[in-house]
Specification:
Helices cover about 70% and strands about 10% of the residues. The chain is mostly helical. A three-stranded antiparallel β-sheet has the order 1-2-3. β1 and β2 form a beta hairpin.
């Protein structure tokens, strides 16, 4: 969003963009997206436990995928539940940390960098753990998604730390 636009003739316009707000929007995205992921995965687990009815649409379907992948090893039913609970907890922690970073980012710029670093580190470690688990279970059906999420998390970190807060551009 342009903060201020100064016309300098018909051929040149200098726009001042609030990069700080764009960075905040990135943090909002991760906080909202991870919150939705936690909710849909939680509902999926509740469907598995038949607490929610089978027709319940707001569920990720990820539990069935985890159960299928872990079925190659004995005792996989309880392993699937433990792994899925761990993933939901990890995603929940990442969501909470991103919401914390959003609140701090909106209040003041400088102290928020540490909160952003922690939130992104937790989410990046989740995607990395998924990649390791895919190696352990020799199932690479969703590894491209986890690699992309890892790369987007790293890109978010770079955008937040490397882009200057105010950018003047000529058009």
């Amino acid at each position: 969003m342009p903060k201020r636009c100064l016309a300098k003739g018909f051929d040149e316009v200098v726009m001042f963009t609030r990069v700080h707000d764009i960075k905040c929007a990135l943090l909002w995205f991760w906080a909202v997206w991870l919150s939705v992921v936690v909710a849909t995965n939680g509902c999926d687990l509740l469907k598995h436990w038949t607490i929610l009815p089978a027709w319940w649409a707001f569920a990720s379907g990820n539990y069935a995928a985890v159960a299928k992948v872990t079925s190659v090893y004995p005792g996989s039913s309880w392993i699937s539940v433990l792994l899925f609970l761990g993933v939901i907890a990890w995603e929940g922690l990442a969501a909470i940390l991103f919401w914390r970073a959003v609140v701090l980012w909106m209040r003041q710029r400088e102290p928020a960098y540490a909160a952003v670093n922690v939130a992104i580190a937790v989410s990046m470690s989740l995607w990395a753990a998924f990649l390791v688990a895919e190696e352990v279970y020799v199932d690479f059906s969703v590894s491209s998604t986890h690699r992309q999420l890892l790369a987007l998390s790293l890109l978010t970190l770079l955008v937040i730390h490397l882009l200057p807060e105010e950018v003047a551009s000529k058009r």
